[in-house]
């Protein structure tokens, strides 16, 4: 199944990836090849088969809602590209005045 | 490693001397091999000195002996967090990142007194089968520097093969411990899913990722496994089951039922690999194993299942890399452009391909056909193993279709690269453990591995068979000419 460029662009937008035009072409053909291969899954009769989301099949364990040690603010900000005033400086997301 | 441990306990050798010897060897050879992304010299020497103090205190007071791992220099794959060292996952998007905590698996080894020499090279975010996808350069196979070491734990495998360390941690999501072990003549263990904590393992495919290890023998791996394994409250997917004690001196292989799956002996299997594996099975038979053919009928579906599920999970796990909280930030300082530019600039091609595959497989209109269907076929693959293990105790097969291929051989053909994984992927889909053991060489002098697989949590069975094989053969003692 050939992926067209529009589909590649749509997926790249969903995945927040900026691709060059050359990358768009290259990935379109490479991904099409992989998806063609994956299409053989459609031939398999899976009626009555439950999906495996986890090989363990265990329920999510719970714990009491107790406060436990966590990293300090300094530790968390240590890797930040633009720390400021004890916060992560990020581009404005909302338009207009606060 | 066990000899070194004995020497350390007897006081014949210090951990500091051992560590300095490893660091010198790294310095002498790593220019050619490029196994390490980061050598933690100061940290390692501090740890070695602490281990020496602990060993000396024990020799004086003579109570409970320290772990066999005390003072032993190891390496850690760069997808595992070690506080005090960088973690790049072989990617530019984590350039400069220093984890604020240490992975549980690594911490347990540190608690036992092990020494961490540094972080080893990996395919970016563990996506790859050759270490060629590292953004920091490929690692070269110590047996032939023009060949790949395998991947994604190629740095760890090369470091062990080149005797830069006694053992190295790796991770195995689709074969990334077993295949490089096979290509580099090391012994590599993929653990059962949930057996070793994933806390501090930077995630790729959360239902597939496992922490494992490589060393020169199963006997060397055993104390590492025992120390790392076990429930961790910090990993909600870690199992509560007690860790089976590894008894290498137990009963021999008499009566062990060994299954050889017909679907693994296909066209495309390098003749030398087939011959070495069949010879190894014959060897196990002379050691007492009862061999029979088994069938794992859905084997040929493992590849498409994996290349839908793993990228899907990766697309979710890698959504966090946006340049906001860690790693470099690129872009014009605007939202959402900075996300697009940071990720577009700093993720490598294979990572981008897998993120897109995964995004597609999970997107509206395709979810059921791809991801939903893949999850159902995964159940069939897992059931194949359950049925086989009703008939046999262990399964023996090749690790990879070929020996180490040349750097650059698969060029820009992702699918050709994916086909390298056909024999290792099924164990990850089923969640079962597997081990790769050196079992011979091809006519180019490149190592060939034998794979053994066991039921979930039956690592003790793997170790028993692996150790018996290694006591009767010497493949694992061969060293590269470096």
Find the count of extended strands of chain B (DSSP E, 2+ residues).
11
- How far from one another are the termini of chain B? 20 Å
Structural class of chain A: mainly alpha
Structure summary, number of beta strands of chain A: 2
Rg of chain A: 23 Å
So how many helices of chain A? 3
The CATH class of the domain at 5-43 in chain A is Mainly Alpha
Largest sheet of chain B: 11 strands, mixed
> Beta-strand percentage of chain B?
5-15%
Proportion of residues in helical segments of chain B: 25-40%
Assign the CATH topology of the domain at 5-43 in chain A. Histone, subunit A
Q: So what's the CATH class of chain B? A: Alpha Beta
Overall geometric form of chain A: flat
Count of folded domains of chain B = 1
Helix count, DSSP H or I runs of 4 or more residues of chain B: 15
The CATH homologous superfamily of chain B corresponds to Amidase signature (AS) domain
Low-confidence stretches of chain B: none
Strand content of chain A: under 5%
Gyration radius over CA of chain B:
21 Å
Describe the structure.
Chain A has 98 residues and is mainly alpha-helical. Chain A has a domain at 5-43: Histone, subunit A. Chain A is 34% helix and 4% strand. Chain A has three helices and two strands. In chain A, β1 (83-84) and β2 (87-88) form a beta hairpin. Chain B is α/β, with parallel strands linked by helices and 482 residues long. Chain B has a single domain, classed as Amidase signature (AS) domain (Amidase signature (AS) enzymes, Alpha-Beta Complex). Helices cover 39% and strands 12% of the residues of chain B. Chain B has helices spanning 2-10, 15-33, 41-61, 104-111, 154-161, 178-184, 218-228, 271-286, 302-317, 337-346, 349-362, 368-391, 414-418, 425-430, 459-472; strands at 36-39, 73-77, 115-120, 167-171, 187-190, 211-215, 257-261, 290-294, 394-398, 434-441, 447-453. In chain B, α2 packs antiparallel against α3, α5 (154-161) packs parallel to α6 (178-184) and α9 packs across α11. Chains A and B meet through α1 and α2 of A and α9, α10, α11, α12 and α13 of B.
């Amino acid at each position: 199944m050939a992926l067209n460029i529009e589909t590649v662009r749509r997926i790249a937008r969903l995945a927040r990836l900026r691709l060059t035009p050359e990358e768009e072409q290259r990935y379109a053909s490479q991904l099409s090849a992989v998806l063609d291969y994956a299409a053989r899954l459609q031939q398999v009769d899976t009626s009555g088969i439950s999906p495996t989301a986890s090989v363990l099949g265990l329920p999510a364990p719970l714990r009491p809602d107790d406060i436990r040690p966590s990293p300090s603010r300094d530790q968390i900000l240590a890797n930040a590209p633009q720390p400021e005033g004890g916060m992560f400086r990020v581009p404005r997301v909302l338009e207009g005045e606060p | 490693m066990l000899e070194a441990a004995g020497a350390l306990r007897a006081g014949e050798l210090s951990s500091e001397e051992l560590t300095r010897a490893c660091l010198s060897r790294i310095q002498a050879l790593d220019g050619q091999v490029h196994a390490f992304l980061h050598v933690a010299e100061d940290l390692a020497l501090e740890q070695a000195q602490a281990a020496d103090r602990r060993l000396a205190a024990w020799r004086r007071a003579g109570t409970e002996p320290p772990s066999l791992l005390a003072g032993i220099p190891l390496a850690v794959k760069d997808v595992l967090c070690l506080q005090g060292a960088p973690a790049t996952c072989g990617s530019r998007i984590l350039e400069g990142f220093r984890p604020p905590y240490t992975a549980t698996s690594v911490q347990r080894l540190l608690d036992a007194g092990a020494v961490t020499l540094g972080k080893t090279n990996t395919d970016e975010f563990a996506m790859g089968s050759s270490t060629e996808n590292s953004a920091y350069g490929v690692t070269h196979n110590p047996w032939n520097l023009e060949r790949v070491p395998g991947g994604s734990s190629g740095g760890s495998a090369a470091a062990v093969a080149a005797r830069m360390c006694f053992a190295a941690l790796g991770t195995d999501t689709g074969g990334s411990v077993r295949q490089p072990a096979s290509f580099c003549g090391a012994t590599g263990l993929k653990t059962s899913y949930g057996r070793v904590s994933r806390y501090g393992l930077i995630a790729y495919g959360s239902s597939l990722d496992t922490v494992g290890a490589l060393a020169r023998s199963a006997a060397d791996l055993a104390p590492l496994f025992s120390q790392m394994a076990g429930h961790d409250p910090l990993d909600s997917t870690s199992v509560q089951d007690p860790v089976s004690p590894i008894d290498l001196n137990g009963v021999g292989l008499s009566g062990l039922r060994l299954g050889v799956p017909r679907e693994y002996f296909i066209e495309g299997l390098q003749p030398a690999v087939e011959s070495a594996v069949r010879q190894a099975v014959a060897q196990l038979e002379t050691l007492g194993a009862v061999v029979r053919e088994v069938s794992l009928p859905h084997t040929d579906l493992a590849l498409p299942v994996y290349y839908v599920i793993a990228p899907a999970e990766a697309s979710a796990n890698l959504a966090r890399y946006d340049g906001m909280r860690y790693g470099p930030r690129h872009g014009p300082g605007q939202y959402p452009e900075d996300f697009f530019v940071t990720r577009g600039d700093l993720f490598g091609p294979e990572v981008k391909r897998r993120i897109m595959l995964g995004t597609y497989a999970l997107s509206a209109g395709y979810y059921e056909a791809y991801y939903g269907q893949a999850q159902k076929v995964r159940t069939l693959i897992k059931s194949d193993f359950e049925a086989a293990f009703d008939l046999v105790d262990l399964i023996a097969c090749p690790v990879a279709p070929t020996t180490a291929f040349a750097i650059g051989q698969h060029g820009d053909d992702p699918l050709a690269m994916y086909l390298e994984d056909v024999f290792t992927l099924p164990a990850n889909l089923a969640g079962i453990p597997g081990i790769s053991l050196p079992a011979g060489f091809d006519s180019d002098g490149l190592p060939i591995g034998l794979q053994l697989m066991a039921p979930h949590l039956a690592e003790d069975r793997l170790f028993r068979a692996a150790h018996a094989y290694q006591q009767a053969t010497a493949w694992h003692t061969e060293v590269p000419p470096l």
